[in-house]
Specification:
three-stranded mixed beta sheet, binds uridine-diphosphate-N-acetylglucosamine, alpha/beta, 332 residues, globular
Length: 332
Amino acid sequence: MILVTGGAGFIGSHTCVELSDAGFDFVIVDNFTNSSKEMIDRLGSITGKRIKSVTADVRDKDAVSDIFSKFDIDAVIHFAGYKAVGESVSAPLSYYRNNIDCTLTLCEVMSEHNVKKLIFSSSATVYRSDNKMPVDENAALGCTNPYGWSKFMIEQMLRDLYASDNKWSIALLRYFNPIGAHSSGMIGELPSGTPNNLMPYITQVVSGKLEKLHVFGDDYPTIDGTGVRDYIHVVDLAKGHISALRYINDKSGVEAVNLGTGRGYSVLEIIHAFEKATGEKIPYVIDKRRDGDTAACFAKVGKAKELLGWEANLEINKMCEDAYRWESSNSN
Ligand code: UD1
């Protein structure tokens, strides 16, 4: 049985579908502060299975311990955490408290129950922005906001944990920019308030919730001056977790692995790809650069292929179609 913390969230819910497809039994723990309970029912519809879920905060040690007593957990995929960059700058203590406490509590309980296989949701945001692109797993680390530093610190904690007890088997998955949604249109990203990320902003412009897209800077040293990122379909990303789970199963160690496509797209390229995929027009204006943004960030993907036998397959067209379908069928 796999424990999925934050399994009702964007990446967590898609990973649960892939776990089910791959024949894994799993239980979700989520406090639903940044996700909806309805996702559990929807996961049931997509998978055709009864979804096991516990409503609890991962910081609640007794509640997490109970889950380990009740279910025969073999491994944990740990998604639970706060993830809004801007919010982390205005509320750093709450970000450090929540993200680090969740992981500490989880690892303590895992240790007590002798469960030592863990997949952690890290982020490409741990890489310093002045690295040469594409960035590999050995590139220099450093962050620009508390959200990023919380990921960085947790990676270090998990490395220290392995150093103290080399029975642990840990994958630190560094996500690039996940977008898209499940092709059923039943699960997807649920941004709270006005989205900060590009794709949910675009889909809300198209659905009429927002007036126009602000393109943050057109004077970067990139193909057309706008920021370049490595967008990856969330279903591909979810499948990466299944490969990582198989990888950590029969060995010990701690490995950081990039999950990206290896290809960068500029903001303007994304706008055009979205328009082409959906037939919609995206009104936009060029605005000034956003603080903390970098010109380009995309992954070197060789390690994921070599170690996990995984690579991303879904094209930008599909990412846009699926993001659009999700917004169109759920905009209310
Ligand atoms: C952002 C976070 C990153 C986090 C990731 C999670 C920042 C600085 N970085 O990454 O730490 O891990 O989200 O998904 O917030 N853009 C626009 N207009 C918009 C929104 C975005 O032009 O309204 C541009 C950005 O300048 C960037 C690209 O689109 O070039 C992608 O932005 P976004 O989706 O926010 O992702 P990141 O900034 O890469």
